[in-house]
Amino acid sequence: MLTSFETNFDAVIAEILSLRSTDDTTIRTIAYFNPFVGYMKELGIYEDINPYGKAFNEYIVQAASERNIPAARVYLAMNGPNGDEDASDKGYISWDGVHLSDAGHRLVVELHRGLGYEALGP
To answer: How many domains does the chain have?
Structure first.
């Protein structure tokens, strides 16, 4: 699954960059958070699954960086550096346990805002 994701992510970035350049367009991406940390721990599957989520995010950041595209590292803010912090405990997940709360949306906006809006150059 990770290999398929990497191939697809690279293809999407290649397609975008074939249409627009980072020197005249603001292009940003996001490294995703895990809304299910607490639930996965309850089920006893967190330790088995977390390395894959971490690998997905590491690839997003690496692949974007290689192409001069900043990535909002949402997972760091929501799940912490080890990925083991529950975003729900921080108030970032809504009542349904899956989607972002208002605070979560604000955090994502602030992280993107922190990347800036200027075109980045070649």
So the answer is: 1
Whether pTM > 0.90 for this model: the answer is: no
Buried b (16+ CB within 10 A) or exposed e, 82-109: ebebbbbebebbbeeeeebbeebeebbe
**Pairwise pLDDT comparison (26 vs 107), residue with the higher score:** 107
End-to-end CA distance of the chain: 31
Q: How far apart are CA 26 and CA 67, in angstroms?
A: 13
In a domain, 108, yes or no: yes
Is 119 a member of any domain? Answer: no
Residue span of the structural domain in which 54 resides = 2-113
| C-alpha radius of gyration, the chain, whole number | 16
